[in-house]
Write a structure and sequence with these properties.
CATH architecture of one domain: Alpha-Beta Barrel
Largest sheet: 9 strands, mixed
Number of helices: 17
Number of strands: 27
CATH topology of one domain: TIM Barrel
Distance between the termini: 32 Å
Helix content: 25-40%
Strand content: 15-25%
Low-confidence stretches: 1-17
Structural class: alpha/beta
Oligomer: single chain
CATH superfamily of one domain: Metal-dependent hydrolases
Radius of gyration: 24 Å
Shape: globular
Mean pLDDT: 95
Length: about 550
């Protein structure tokens, strides 16, 4: 695909000399607009009326045909369609603003220092933190609870791993969850040492503690959503796909949007629980201008970093260990049939090759009679290359490029060289499916979508490692990466008719960037900043 330099005019613009100029609300001109429209064309200007694009073309065409009280000379700035994060945890990002931040810690000692400082500044009866990753430490083994028991003998402490699939807790938290050396929970593990819990819980047992943790009150929930919105707008995002929300939080998002107190667009995946499924699957999908509820988020397995991803063969660095299915294959099959019958989309977290093939089989059986379901495999991270053929127009991969550049230091240790060709195989997945939806999985990774773009194209970390890129045969082109963050992400949400490109009739969601993501050196992509963000033609950042 070649990006052309000609203007795009999607309707006939009448000359000002023969017709009076039409009224618009906003005109932006003398910009470099990557429309992500037909043939990847560029434009110079557009007009907005009632929150939607009404014309796109050259500056001369738009200024001759339209007038507007808000007319902006972009002075050559780059504009792209409003960016979409196809997989994130929007509400979780907001909640994390009031938790101990453990992201980027370089040792367990630093974790303890941050937790102590947080508790001194925010004393409470329960202490929660998130973001540690033992793979970033010199000693890469899971920590244990001994230091937490010594420092916090009287309150429960829960420290969540960066991927959300492991939890370090102290004895008070184990007691809260009723966890002992004999506790066994399908779909996860209570890690023991010398026959006693170490304080590390992987996947399902985490719920024994967190289900007894105090829930945020309404004010805290609202504060979390609004703080997350501010962060997302500052990063150029106009739509977020929240990968797992309760019926209660979805209702709160809707009420805030209807009241004008939350402006970001949300594609909400319903968390897979009996209560949530009963609340939605018996009713039609929910669709407003800002909220879309037509999908269910399911977990097939855990994460590679905590060795919870379900693999066909044992972990190379832990012989005899295969990971675990959180949702067994037979349950995936039954759930897929129920979701298909309800007319909803199923979006399933699958990291390991065993989990991925189980999900693909369940999808194929459930979708046999459906024409355009667009079900998604979230992450599609480690695949047996023989299973790639399971993707196609009905089954789309939703992938997070920064996972590749975060995991590349140790992924081969977990998997061995033979499994790496199917790991983080973005180009292979695109070839198999025709489209890929791109996201970050924030707060597991950073919110910044330019890091998504950089990781997809350059497949390097922010220091430029490795030279030449990580498994570059699976890099995406810049055009493909931009589509994955805009039009293809919108398509995966059944929303390509209303967003994802700058074309007449679509919502006027767009983002100003401070550099040209199509022409700057690859090494500079990570440094591109957002200058302004618009939703429905209104500036929100």
């Amino acid at each position: 695909m070649k990006w052309t330099l000609t203007g795009v005019t999607a309707l006939i613009l009448m000359s000002a000399c023969s017709e009076p100029r039409q009224e618009a609300d906003l005109i932006v001109h003398h910009a470099r607009v990557y429309t992500v429209g037909p043939e990847g064309a560029t434009a110079e200007a557009f007009a907005v009326k009632d929150g939607r694009f009404v014309a796109v073309g050259t500056s001369e065409e738009i200024l001759e045909a339209y007038s507007a009280p808000d007319t902006r000379d972009a002075a050559g700035q780059v504009i792209v369609p409003g960016l979409i994060d196809a997989h994130c945890h929007f509400y979780g990002l907001g909640l994390n603003q009031e938790a101990a931040d453990l992201v980027g810690t370089r040792s367990f000692e630093e974790v303890l220092e941050r937790v102590q400082a947080f508790h001194e500044a925010h004393p409470a009866d329960y202490l929660y933190g998130r973001g540690w990753d033992q793979n970033d430490w010199e000693v890469k083994a899971f920590p244990d609870k001994a230091a937490l028991d010594r420092l916090f003998p009287d309150i429960p402490v829960a420290l969540e791993r960066v991927d959300g699939h492991a939890l370090l807790v102290n004895q008070k938290a184990l007691d809260l969850g009723g966890i002992t050396a004999s506790t066994r929970v399908p779909g996860g593990e209570v890690i023991l040492k010398d026959g006693q819990p170490t304080g590390i819980l992987v996947d399902s047992p985490m719920d024994l503690v967190m289900n007894r943790w105090p829930a945020p009150d309404r004010a805290a929930q609202i504060r979390a959503l609004q703080q997350a919105e501010q962060i997302c707008f500052a990063n150029g995002l106009t739509t977020v796909n929240d990968a797992g929300l309760s019926a209660d939080v979805i209702g709160l998002i809707d009420s805030l949007q209807q009241a004008g107190e939350l402006k970001i667009r949300v594609y909400a995946m319903v968390s897979n629980s009996p209560a949530n499924l009963d609340a939605f699957l018996g009713n039609p999908p929910v669709k407003t201008d800002r909220l879309n509820v037509r999908s269910v988020k399911v977990y097939a397995d855990g994460a590679l970093g905590s060795r919870g991803a379900a693999l066909k063969a044992p972990y190379t660095d832990q012989p005899g260990h295969f990971g675990a299915m959180i949702t067994p294959a037979e349950d995936l099959d039954a759930l897929a049939r129920r979701i298909a019958a309800a007319g909803f989309q199923m979006n399933t977290h699958a990291i390991g090759d065993s989990a991925n093939v189980a999900v693909l089989r369940a999808y194929r059986a459930a979708l046999a009679g459906l024409d355009d379901p667009r079900w998604k495999v979230e992450h599609a991270q480690i695949l047996d290359t023989a299973d790639l053929k399971g993707f196609g127009p009905k089954i789309l991969p939703s992938i997070q490029p920064t996972h590749a550049t975060s995991d590349m230091y140790w992924a081969e240790d977990r998997l061995g060289a033979d499994r790496m060709p199917g790991a983080y195989a973005f180009a292979k997945l695109l070839k198999a499916s025709g489209r890929v939806a791109l996201g970050t999985d924030f707060p597991v990774e950073q919110v910044n979508p330019m890091l998504t773009f950089y990781a997809a194209v350059a497949r390097q970390d922010q220091e430029g490692y490795p030279e030449g890129g990580f498994q570059m045969e699976d890099a995406l082109s810049r055009e493909e990466a931009l589509k994955g963050m805009t039009l293809w992400a919108a398509y995966s949400n059944f929303e390509e008719g209303e967003k994802g490109s700058i074309e007449p009739g679509k919502w006027a969601d767009f983002t100003f960037l401070d550099a040209d993501l199509m022409t700057v050196p690859a090494s500079a992509l990570k440094d591109i900043g957002v200058q302004a963000t618009f939703v429905a033609g209104k500036q929100v950042y």
